[in-house]
């Protein structure tokens, strides 16, 4: 799975968790809050396992990462672009 797709999946899961927590709290339905906590725990595990650099395999840290903090590779290079090309680094 591409890094950009994984980022969208994680952000979507966090939106679902937030919505379930709000619905559980507003509707006084603790089962929704329990489901939200379950999704949150599963998401944290998936984040820890799958949120990794496709080049070196190290954890990427924050969801806003655009480059690997370990090897410096650009996470979503343009097609044909070298992910290690220093010119591709837009944060330097
Ligand atoms: Zn890396």
How much of the sequence lies in strands comes to under 5%
Q: Helix/strand-derived class? A: mainly alpha
Order of helices and strands: HH
- How does the overall form come out from the CA principal axes? elongated
Largest sheet: none
Helix content: 40-55%
Which stretches are poorly predicted, pLDDT < 50 over at least 5 residues?
A: none
Radius of gyration: 17 Å
Query: Could you give the distance between the termini?
Result: 27 Å
Task: Summarize model confidence as the mean pLDDT.
Answer: 88
Tell me the number of structural domains. Answer: 2
- What small ligands are held by the chains? zinc ion
Describe the protein's architecture and organization:
With 92 residues, the chain is mainly alpha-helical. The protein folds into two domains: 1-51; 61-92, no CATH class. Helices cover 49% and strands 0% of the residues. It is built from two helices and no strands. Helix 1 packs antiparallel against helix 2. The two termini are 27 Å apart. The structure holds zinc ion.
What secondary-structure arrangement, pairings included, does this model have?
Elements (H helix, E strand, L loop, with lengths): L2 H24 L3 H21 L42
Helix pairs in contact: 1-2
Key features of this structure:
92 residues; 2 domains; 0% strand
Q: Could you give a short description of this structure?
A:
With 92 residues, this protein is an all-alpha fold.
């Amino acid at each position: 799975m591409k890094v950009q797709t994984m980022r969208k999946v994680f952000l979507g899961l966090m939106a679902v968790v937030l919505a379930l927590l709000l619905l559980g709290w507003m509707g006084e339905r603790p089962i929704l809050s329990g489901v939200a906590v379950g999704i949150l725990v599963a998401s944290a595990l998936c984040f820890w396992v799958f949120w990794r650099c496709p080049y070196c395999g190290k954890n990427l840290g924050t969801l806003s990462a655009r480059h690997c903090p370990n090897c410096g590779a650009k996470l979503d290079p343009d097609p044909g672009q070298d992910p290690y090309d220093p010119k591709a680094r837009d944060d330097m």
